[in-house]
Design brief:
Elements (H helix, E strand, L loop, with lengths): L4 H9 L2 H5 L1 E6 L3 E7 L8 H11 L13 H17 L7 E4 L3 E5 L4 E2 H6 L5 H17 L12 E5 L4 E6 L12 H16 L7 H14 L2 H14 L13 H20 L9
Helix pairs in contact: 6-7, 6-8, 7-9, 7-10, 9-10
Length: about 270
């Protein structure tokens, strides 16, 4: 799957990934590949307040992992992609690393968030498979960077889509939190970014979450329960999308958290839970 010198030269000369950050190329050696340019360096000061609030609330897994940009971010992403690929995780293989860009396998043209929002008939099955993939990843002692639905690539055809893998690893949560914190953070971002638009019953959602949490480590389960206690009150937020995506997505995740507490705690939680 090695790229030829001519292909690497063509990629290096392109303005597409410089202007738009990413660009897809057709190559004879490796098929379609994705090129990702270095993001301009960014300061870390804006993350300090958010991380301080997360610690104050006793929810360290809500901290924002630093995303400095520049060559540091590229090095972090390449390192994590290679480590995850080597252990068999569904991530693109890194094919080449340059000073201001790197090249990886192209996994597909869509992502899970789009597929769910479009109401695709395969969306519920893909959502369940995404959660199953997280369980396997965590069982191997690994974690994502940002477990949002937009970072799970969907490949295949419209009639027969499949989960192709996770992308976007510019930040490393272990810089600011423990492994169990990073793993429960994966669940919170995954559920937050999918439940608000998922067209399945609450009973099916609850059954999946119960199955996934049962397969997780006690440390991750404890942290998820803690998150449910601290966020369940947000189920009272508006459900209608005219109030904005953020409110609706928080409400859906909080409602699932509240139901989880009702199933796994010996009393019905109050709004303060």
């Amino acid at each position: 799957m090695a790229l030829s010198p001519k292909e690497l030269q063509r990629i290096a000369r392109s303005d597409g990934w410089r202007d738009g950050r990413v660009e897809v190329f057709d190559t004879a050696s490796a098929g379609k590949v994705m090129v990702k340019g270095v993001r301009p360096a960014r300061g870390l000061a804006r993350y300090r307040l958010l991380n301080g609030v997360a610690r104050l609330l006793g929810l360290p897994f809500l901290q924002a992992a630093p995303m400095p940009g520049g060559k540091r971010a590229q090095k972090t992403e390449v390192t994590r992609l290679r480590a995850l690929h080597d252990m068999g995780a569904c991530v693109p293989k890194v094919l080449h690393v340059g000073d201001d860009h790197f090249v990886m396998q192209w996994l597909g043209h869509d992502h899970l968030g789009n597929v769910i929002q479009a109401g695709h008939p395969h969306a519920p099955a893909l959502w369940r498979k995404g959660g199953d993939a997280l369980v396997r990843l965590h069982a191997a002692g690994q974690y994502l960077s940002q477990g949002f639905a937009r970072n799970m690539v969907v490949g295949g055809t419209h009639a027969s889509p499949h989960l192709a893998g996770w992308i976007d690893f510019e930040d490393d949560p272990l810089q600011v939190m423990s492994l169990p914190d990073a793993q429960v953070r994966d669940w919170l971002t995954y559920l937050h970014s999918t439940l608000w638009m998922l067209r399945v019953s609450d009973a099916e959602i609850d059954a999946c979450i119960d199955e996934w949490m049962a397969a997780e480590s006690p440390a991750v389960r404890d942290r998820y329960m803690r998150a449910c206690r601290r966020t369940g009150w947000m189920r009272v937020l508006p459900r209608h999308r005219r109030f904005g995506r953020d409110a609706v997505s928080l409400q859906a995740a909080a409602a699932a958290a509240h139901r989880y507490l009702r199933r796994h705690v010996g009393r019905q939680p109050t709004l303060s839970d």
